[in-house]
Design a protein that fits this description.
The structure is a homodimer of 110-residue chains. Chain A has 110 residues and is α+β, with helices and mostly antiparallel strands. Helix content of chain A is 61%, strand content 13%. Chain A has helices spanning 4-11, 14-26, 31-35, 42-54, 73-85, 87-91, 99-108, and strands at residues 29-30, 58-63, 66-71. In chain A, strand 2 and strand 3 (66-71) form a beta hairpin. Chain A binds a DNA duplex (30 and 30 nucleotides) through helix 3 and helix 4.
Chain lengths: 110, 110
DNA sequence: TTGTTAATTAACTGTTGATTTAATTACTAG
DNA sequence: CTAGTAATTAAATCAACAGTTAATTAACAA
């Protein structure tokens, strides 16, 4: 639940990953909205939501017949904390490319 | 291979995750060293190494009969780039705790 | 109550994944 | 070349996972 491998497992499915990205971009959404426009069935989406919730990646808010889902910031923070705890490792080869740090530098000056 | 869900899938197994953490902490290691001290069989370790390699998380260097494995910094950088690209999302609830950012701030002044 | 909509759970199928033991490849040493 | 060591691939098993259709729960509105 609150450990990294479980979080990574939740995000390892492309469908779930896309759902999480959409929830972060658009904010909280009901299950129906996440189901719409996607080719897979509603029950499949429902199961993915359950998996994400069990892993602590998303949270649910019941609103009448709708269930509103949103990403738990703590999940992202946990991943960030892990990468940062190993920062000295991957940063040592930073001269090779501009990937993560350049992305970071972009949003740094706000 | 070079996409996030695949990377997350590679890190979703507790055994593999532990192997990656050990490789980052101790540096490059031969397969035998990763196998020693762990309760699972050598072939199982070998398959895990193959999975990690296919996902681009680790790399292999052949040295005689030994295969030396090490973590590819790019894999960590890719994860970091992703979390940073969503930084405005999880950072907005940062007042709740000190997790990732505090970790980051600690190592910032070097 | 009856019907409608939102979403889930149930039951089933096919695929992938982790593990083991046994066999194989490949390098090194005598 | 023979033996030993490092590591992998082969073959088989069992569990977990993603997907489907069908059935169920729950809220709301007439």
């Amino acid at each position: 639940m609150t450990n990294l491998p479980t979080t990574f497992a939740a995000l390892s499915d492309p469908t779930r990953f896309a759902m999480v990205e959409r929830l972060m971009a658009e904010g909280a959404l009901p299950a129906g909205a996440l189901s719409a426009g996607v080719e897979i069935s509603a029950p499949a989406i429902s199961r993915h939501l359950k998996t994400l919730r069990a892993a602590g990646v998303i949270q649910q808010e019941v609103k009448g017949t709708h269930r509103i889902y949103s990403v738990r910031p703590e999940a992202l923070q946990m991943i960030t904390a892990w990468t940062m705890s190993h920062r000295e490792f991957w940063e040592s080869s930073m001269n090779r490319l501009e990937m993560a740090l350049s992305e970071f530098q972009e949003t740094k000056d706000d």
